[in-house]
Write the structure tokens for this entry.
Amino acid sequence: MASLRIASWNINSVRFRMEIVERFLTESAPDILCLQETKVIDSDFPHAPFRALGYDHIALNGQRMHHGVAVISRVPLAEDDRLDWQANGEARHIGVRLANGLRLENVYVPAGGDIPDREANPKFGQKLDFIERMTQWSAGLSGQPVLLVGDFNIAPLESDVWSHKQLLDVVSHTPVEVEALARLQAANDWVDLGRQFVPPPARLYTWWSYRAKDWLASDRGRRLDHMWASRDVAARAVAHRVHEHCRSWLKPSDHIPIETEFDF
């Protein structure tokens, strides 16, 4: 069997944080890195630093100053798909296929604004609609080996946030979002790899606000970043890592990389 390690990271501007991306690739050396919120059009994407580290295969769906997703790989990629689950042309998805048949889908779900009400806040409605379109897509995947990764912008479990009670009315942990995400998960019987390896109620976070003076001391985190696998792919997962130390690096993203190792 061959080992394959796949990482996912909302980098919050790949060009601004290229130094820590290079550090992560040098120290952790995953075979594939899926990035969200790259904030750069495809023609301006920094190919050279990745190729210098041996990541010669790059699939992009970029947008100027906003959103954007990318798949950076040491192994060949095919079937470069871009689905518009936002229904407005925003660059929030890219899908590829590996030589072993695995479909790898990289998504950046909208944050949804600050008010958890569709009428008062259209962005919240857009987020729910985005997830509904993903749910419809998921229902058609039966029997296919798929890994879905990215920033889902929802922390579904009570142990996925620093305070369930205080965040019930805060976008990313509201009951309506959690219910929408549960429908998405059920649509393809997705396995939540993070919680497969770190079962609840254990603490598991991937994001800490920039507003905290000392993120580590306050530890007001949320698990917004996820890796979901179809059942056959999940059976091949042998390890899952949450790289919390990256949140303390110079000019950090507010998200950290997560990584799963598979034996195929």
